[in-house]
Amino acid sequence: MLVSKIRKNIMGTISFTAKFKGMRKEQEFIVYANPQENLVIQADNKFGYVSLTSGRVVIGNCNCGAAFILSKHNVDNIENMEELKDAIRKTAGEKVGSSGIVYCDNSKAGNI
Question: Are 31 and 14 a contacting pair, CB within 8 Å?
């Protein structure tokens, strides 16, 4: 599956739009860059992980308010993973964001 509308968001990190397996409609996901094995992604009512090496996505529903549980998960693959990784690398910086009030430390994004 291809992710679309890859863009820099107000926090200075990357957002994209996708409809993974098991989802009824497209949602906007924010990427939390962590240069370990997986990226963490979150939408309004979905939460998941994306493998940096394979592009494999495990996605589940957000339950219990702020406590995210992968109670039901679906597995999919991002076909344009290199495009997503390139966009993430370009947002690297210690103090990123354009809100003027809140900034984000996204310095580890350059290691992806």
Answer: yes
Burial profile 53-62: b = 16 or more Cβ within 10 angstroms, e = fewer: eebebbbbbb
Tell me the per-residue pLDDT of 17-70, one tens digit each, with 9 for 90 and over.
999 887 889 999 998 866 667 888 889 888 888 888 888 888 877 665 544 455
pTM for this model (two decimals): 0.80
Euclidean distance between the first and final Cα of the chain, in Å?
Answer: 21
Any bridge partners for residue 32, and if so which?
40
Three-state SS annotation for the chain: CCCEEEEECCCCCEEEEECCCCCCCCEEEEEECCCCCEEEEECCCEEEEEECCCCEEEEEEECCCCCEEEEEEEEEECCCHHHHHHHHHCCCCCCECCCCCCCECCHHHHHC
- The domain limits of the chain are 4-104
- Cα–Cα dist 30/104, whole Å: 13
